[in-house]
Target: MFS domain-containing protein
Amino acid sequence: MTDEIIKHSYIHFKSRRFHITLLLMIGICLFFFARTNLGLSMVCMVNSTAVNLENSDFNYTNSLKIPDKCLKDDKTNNNDQKKAKDYGGTFNWNINIQNMILSGNFYGAIITIVPAGILADRSSPKNLLLLSATLFLITSALFPYLAYNYGYVPLIASRIIMGLGEGISSPAFNHILSNWIPKSESPVAMAIYTSGVQVAGFIGNPVTAYFCDSSFGWVGVFYLLSVCLIMWSLLWGLTVKNKFHKDKWMHEKERNYLEAHMTNHKNKGFKKDFSIPWMSMITSLPLLSTLICNFFAMMYNFFVTMYLPTYFKDTLYVSIMDNGFYSSLPFIAQCVSKIGWGYFMTHLQRKQILTSTQSVKLSQAVSGVGVAIGLYALPFLNDCTKPYISVGCFLWISAFFGVCVSGFLVSHIILAPAIVGLISSLFNVTAVIGAIASPWIVSFLKDPNNPESWNTVLYVLGTLWLLSSIVFVIFGSGEPQSWGIMKEVHVDDLLINGENNNKDSLDLNETKL
Model:
């Protein structure tokens, strides 16, 4: 293989695998925004004044123990602390109804997670993503109509249906990435692809706020999203193939490069039937360590996306406009850090300075220590008179959290190339469990009448993330495991060796680690 082919650039405007990564990034951005925009839209939909007046047990005077030094800067409730903040919503839904609508997608996702992983391994991940996008599109487009005409029960049902699409998407996303990206480029590719989450978080809140404040109202968010999903689905369906060697726009040099460097794709002449090594999989320490990290990573993500604005409101007493701006900044820090660090890890692997395993373990160690330091330090640095200090601390925390993309997240698509869809499904299961557990854990740790109780939440998050990172550093791996590698025996070989025709030569290796 020539040096020209060996050094074929990944980040280049003519690189087809880069094009695929960008399409994946846009797709995950739209899917994530479809799931999370309701968090801010709900504020515009609900008449919070009426809801709070119905809650006769709510004590406005003692709801927050505001320090004296913060009273003069308190902008959360204008002149009258006893009036709930309201943005002209019309729906009189109490907090329980709101939570049911917001969490409906998790219950839908858990239904399709495992079946979607198996389907991604045995069918077309491209078509699965089209199906997922269709479910997101239909439920988003119908959401305003259902809300105004049928009430909250159909809305909960629509969120559950959206969750069905969400459960399908992750295994398909990861399977496409695994079919197109060599192992050495996985850190930067995973960083770019998953940055769609941060793009959705940084752009989504201002866009939602704009529509809520405009003549379109909150319904405009769902219609805009529906149009974007249609455009992405058309582009995806017309330009993407499941595997790189079927792509008709790829340059021959890039095709030769991928043929030489890809170890996780199966050629057309190979049989597709294989058995799943369940026992070897569920007892694999490298896999279990990634699942543990994923569970606690979801807890952190849930905190940032759902609780960070409340944290800023309770501890810094900032205005809603400042809160929206401050809450979006960590997404930028996370996006920049994970792409930069991913590129750095890819460079070190190409120079053979680090192996794949050393790369994922180093990345996870850096993330675990950096995040823990930030979360431990924040309670001592938090000052309502200097909010920029707390915001800067969260930038530090999010930047180091972004590094973990090159750690356990890269590891999980490398461990078992033959069943990457199923592994992604297991990841989704742990993520959904983490998302469901997070509100309960926060509610247990936090006193709603004492803002300082947020410190306990921060300490617990930092400790859990550090411990899970240590587990991965000890047991994690960046290499394909024996139980997850397809024995690639060509059909022609089976015909020549007739005595082996009755044996499935493509069974997965059942050797236990």
Notes: The chain has a mean pLDDT of 80.
